[in-house]
Write a structure and sequence with these properties.
GO terms for molecular function: low voltage-gated calcium channel activity; voltage-gated sodium channel activity. The chain is mainly alpha-helical. Helices cover about 65% and strands about 0% of the residues. It folds into two domains: about 1-175, Four Helix Bundle (Hemerythrin (Met), subunit A), CATH 1.20.120; about 175-235. The chain has eleven helices and no strands.
């Protein structure tokens, strides 16, 4: 176990800068600490803005939202698109961008943002508020839920916090041991569920808490292991 943890911690980290140009404007910007810092700040502001947008913006589409929400969405979408373009142009071989997990992940998020912010708005503008397909597009406002995926960009902040990366690598190395501990707990829970079901059979407590093995496992897990507040929440 210790060897796996040490191996995970000692493994050389991937550095995307190795695939960038040696010279040029785009590689200089992409490698600069100021560019990375500004990007992290924008990601943090976007995460906070999503909370404000969720609480205050009740519009189904960007076109019907207040002007401040429209400006904010266009700003975030524009910045992320520019940031992605700068990073793409910094690669010596453009196909190497597909080998960078962060770049592929950010590309998918930017495409989703462009689809939600621009494409959906253009369709609504062309179809009109009373068009035959406007209802279908308006119902697509459920796509706003995909804004939550933007919060996953905050994972990039982990790269600026080496201590957190060490914790994550240690947790990943210990995941196998934790899995087998959970298997052991499940086996014990199953055995005691059978025992309680048989012992409490025919009693009022047995009929309510231990009518069968599955209900017995549920009772032992929530009432015997977790807090009472959780069991009350699950029962309701």
């Amino acid at each position: 176990m210790k060897a796996k943890v040490k191996e995970a911690l000692a493994r050389p980290s991937y550095n995307v800068f190795d695939f960038y140009h040696r010279k040029g404007f785009f590689q200089w910007v992409a490698k600069s600490n100021a560019f990375e810092t500004v990007t992290l700040v924008v990601i943090g502001i976007n995460a906070l803005w999503l909370a404000h947008d969720t609480n205050s913006n009740q519009s189904e589409s960007l076109l019907s939202a207040r002007i401040d929400f429209q400006v904010a969405e266009i700003f975030f979408c524009t910045y992320y698109a520019i940031e992605l373009f700068v990073r793409f142009m910094a690669f010596r071989r453009k196909c190497d961008s597909l080998r960078d997990g962060w770049f592929v992940f950010d590309s998918l998020l930017v495409l989703m943002m462009l689809g939600e912010t621009l494409l959906l708005s253009v369709l609504l503008l062309l179809l009109g508020p009373d068009g035959p397909a406007s209802t279908a597009v308006g119902n697509a406002s459920i796509l706003r839920l995909f804004r939550l995926l933007r919060l996953s960009r905050m994972a990039r902040m982990l790269r600026s916090m080496p201590e957190l990366m060490i914790l994550i690598k240690g947790m990943a190395a210990a995941a196998t041991s934790v899995f087998f501990v959970m298997c052991l707990q499940l086996i014990l829970l199953y055995v005691f569920a059978i025992a309680f079901t048989q012992l409490a059979s025919g009693t009022m407590m047995g009929d309510y808490y231990f009518p069968d093995v599955l209900h017995s496992m549920y009772t032992l897990l929530l009432y015997g292991t977790f807090l009472d507040n959780l069991s009350q929440f699950c029962d309701e």
